[in-house]
Design brief:
- The chain is elongated.
- Helix 2 (22-34) packs antiparallel against helix 3.
- By secondary structure, it is of the alpha/beta class.
- Strand 4 (131-134), helix 7 (147-158) and strand 5 (165-168) form a beta-alpha-beta unit.
- It folds into two domains: 2-69 and 242-265, no CATH class; 82-228, Rossmann fold (3-Layer(aba) Sandwich).
- It is built from ten helices and seven strands.
- The chain has a five-stranded parallel β-sheet, with helices on both faces. It has a two-stranded antiparallel ribbon with strand order 2-3.
Amino acid sequence: MDTIFFILSKVVQFCIEPLNWLLIFLPLSLLFLSLRKPHLCKRFLLLALIDLVLVGWVPTSEVFLRALEDAVPKTSIAQISEGEIGGIIVLGGAIEGGQIALDRGEVSIYSAAERITKVFELIRKYPNLPYIFSGYSGRLSPKGLSEADAFKQLVQEQGLNEAMAHYENQSRNTFENFLYMKPMIAELGSTNESGALKPWLLITSASHMYRSVKIFQKQGISVIPIPVDYQTGNHLRWDRFDLEDGVQNWNKLVHELIGLLAYWATGKI
């Protein structure tokens, strides 16, 4: 059932991402051109043009993405002592594992590299805390090195404390991140005076943090959100047209909206 849920979420995301609509509009316009129906051909060409403007004009995606990124306030950890924290969690999605990493022996980091740099910072700040990297792959047919194994290689290359390192290399989505980490958190986490588990620092992209926090809250695990990888600022860029940025923004936005809807419908949040 979880596999069907995972595959269906990928299919739905592909179908509703705006840029993918061109795969419908352009072939239909060519079809009607070949059928000598220029009025229908023009309509679908116009829809394709509108679609490109919708994707490329950055504020159309930024306005929604910024609201999602601001849904969970950024936590200041300057005044948080090591004794108040149970451990550190970093969710996968920033590392390129797979066959290329295995073939080349080098780990590549995506645009969400702040997930990795932030956890390295916190590992050095709190050297006695356990930390967990969670993630296998978000691809439908993953091959080669898992993200967790790739992160393990990075930890070794950076000379960080491996004694406190723990890895979860089975999860394909956010709910599975939690599902496979829950027993690890229970085992590794320390408790406060009342016997409750101390909160764990949770590191993930700002656009992904709201869904992540809701999942942990639903399961009774206390976390302190450390959002990173912000894609929007305080002001919208009304004069900016950039297809590459627009595609990335829509991809993140659609991915999270589908995730929120699917997790709400299945009682995961």
